[in-house]
Design brief:
Elements lengths: L4 E7 L5 H9 L6 E6 L6 H6 L2 E5 L5 H5 L6 E4 L9 H6 L4 E2 L8 H16 L2 H9 L5 H4 L10 E5 L3 H12 L3 E5 L6 H6 L4 E2 L2 H7 L2 E4 L13 H4 L7 E4 L8 H9 L5 E4 L19 E3 L8 H19 L10
Parallel strand pairs: 1-2, 1-3, 3-4, 4-5, 6-7, 6-9, 7-8, 9-10, 10-11, 11-12
Helix pairs in contact: 5-8
Length: 325
């Protein structure tokens, strides 16, 4: 295919906006004319002419899809795809792809998961704050500082990222349980330190740390609601580096405020950025980060290249990869 095609790169402001989009655009081969925007409807003419939309956490709604009569592909520059109206794309037979098989984000998401776990186990945030305030907090904190070694980690969603988390857990001498739609083969379980497949409720009742790595779908929205959070031990910690809406945020705040959970490490929110009214911002024993698990310099390059490679291949006549709808 030699005709020039139009690509609309929609990069949300909170993940870099036009600046990040401009860097992504430079990776495209000459067969594409790339327009960079921060909202899909920011440039109506470009939307109307777009054959491909590449989106980095920028919503692509049914209205946007209806306004793009030439649209042939929606490529998410992320593992997540919940910000695209899948039903509207499906009605037009427009494939929606993510970068799942590329593994572009898995290294840093796994590292951020352990950064949050270690921060909670070692009480780093209250320790730092106390020292800044001239408070030698050792006598107060030493009763709540724990080790990861010997603890049980429950991974909800053992895909590419979940496997990276499991590998690191083995290095920390943790026991790994996992829940998800299907069991892995025995060889993979053995490679991950004898990871054991269990039902979600059993995982929640058993584990000292629960880390979420599932996609956000209708079936997984508020996967951890008040009822499921109540299954966790009061000494357990919840880690979320996947999607904010996997957890009922108010229910999590309730559990933390009541002391029904030991703590939470949260990198993702619903919505993003969170509003000042979000109770988790003031809940006890939380460690929060602004969706940084997939945005190291190295990760952003891999994400952009994976998204461009799939979209450019499609425009050249290849079958798209990682079709989620």
């Amino acid at each position: 295919m030699t005709d020039t095609k139009n690509v609309l790169a929609v990069i949300a402001p909170h993940v870099g906006g036009r600046r990040a989009g401009a860097a992504l655009a430079t990776a495209f081969p000459g067969l594409a004319q790339v327009t960079v925007v921060e909202r899909a409807d920011e440039d109506p003419a470009a939307l109307r002419a777009a054959h491909v939309i590449i989106t980095g956490l920028g919503p692509v709604t049914a209205g946007h899809i209806a306004a793009a009569p030439e649209l042939e592909l929606i490529q998410c520059a992320s593992h997540g795809f919940d910000y695209v109206d899948l039903d509207a794309a499906r009605a037009r037979n427009i494939p929606v792809c993510n970068i799942g098989s590329s593994g572009a984000e898995k290294q840093n998401v796994a590292e951020q998961t352990f950064a949050l776990m270690l921060a909670l186990a070692k009480q780093l945030v209250p320790a730092h704050t106390a020292l800044v305030d001239a408070d030698w907090a050792l006598p107060r904190l030493q009763q709540s500082i724990t080790e990861l070694s010997g603890k049980t980690l429950g991974i909800v969603g053992l895909g590419h990222i979940g496997e990276e988390v499991a590998r690191r857990a083995v290095a920390f001498d943790m026991t790994v349980l996992y829940a998800g739609p299907e069991r892995l083969d025995a060889r993979t379980e053995a490679r991950l330190g004898g990871a054991r497949y269990v039902g979600l409720d059993e995982l929640l009742r058993t584990c000292d740390y629960v880390s979420l790595h599932a996609p956000l779908t209708d079936a997984t929205r508020h996967l951890l609601d008040a009822e499921r959070l109540a299954l966790l031990k009061p000494t357990a910690f919840v880690i979320n580096t996947a999607r904010g809406a996997l957890i009922d945020q108010d229910a999590l705040a309730d559990a933390l405020e009541r002391g029904a959970l030991a703590g939470a490490g949260i990198d993702v929110f619903d919505p993003e950025p969170p509003t000042p009214a979000l109770r988790l911002l003031r809940a006890p024993n939380v460690v929060l980060s602004p969706h940084v698990a997939g945005v190291t310099r190295e990760t952003l390059v891999r994400i952009a290249l994976a998204a461009v490679d799939n979209a450019a291949g499609f425009l050249a006549g290849d079958k798209p990869r990682d079709v989620v709808s």
